[in-house]
Amino acid sequence: MEQSPMTTLCYIERDHQYLMLHRVSKKNDVNKDKWIGVGGHFEGKESPEECLLREVKEETGLTLTSYRFRGIVTFICDDYPVEFMCLYTADGFEGELKECDEGNLEWVDKERLVDLNLWEGDKIFFRLLREEAPFFSLKLVYENGELMEAVLDGADILGR
Question: Would the pTM of this model clear 0.70, i.e. be above it?
Answer without folding.
Answer: yes
